[in-house]
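User: Show me a protein chain along with its predicted structure.
Assistant: Here is one chain, sequence first, then structure tokens.
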Amino acid sequence: MLLFSLEAERYDGSLIKISCRNSDMPGWKWVQELITGHPLRILENYRITVDNFMRLCDVLVGNNYVLQNPHKHVLIEEALGMTLVMLSHSMRTRVVGERFQHSMETIHRNVTEVLLGLCTLDGTHIPATMVPGFLALFKGGRNVRVGQGRGRSQVPKELFNTRHSQLRNIIERFFSVLKQRFAYLRGSVPYSYMQMQINFVITCCALHNFLRENQPLDDHFMMYEQERMQFEGECGGPPYPQIQPLTSPQEIEEWKGMREEMANQMHAASRRRK
């Protein structure tokens, strides 16, 4: 009688060790196959071209963002591959471990190192902080679509609302590209530690900026570049989110004053350019 388990096979009373990670296609070999194979394969799996993948490896190692040594079992190409396939396809650690033929501990350790390295891609770690309030539109102020209203000067409140809508549209398009490229951001991040969740988001933003600079003709960018900009005041979009609502009367008045000052500065700068 044969009894099977994840770690051993028992036959005729004796215990025979069976390796769990015994695939003929280990992770390092799969990464090399993607690098040397058809260029679409690495794009589909990692969302990056071969040249930019190797460039990113050089940046991470050359700036000591991810330390390497001769005795390290997992090299930067494989570690970066783990991270990119996890982010691009929302793979969980156990699935990545099966794909790369490593233990969950090895996957977690190497992905964490790459995440921290990518968070400092520009040399400065981005602090994640909550703003105390939200600058809303002026009530009763119009939003003017770009190209409209020529020949007349917008008052400060109209100009502020127009710039506010333009900025919000750009931010929404940025997050649309981010979620389209990195499926990991489309649902809840499966890590209970808040810092790990923050690192995942910052990493996706750092990769977005790197690809924006080095891979500008990427399909994900081109898809949203061709969209026409629409403003919420005209197309009936969802209401603005309530972010950390202010409760103190003094704080509310301070933020209203700051908004008035910004609107007046925008208006003055606009008049000087004419």
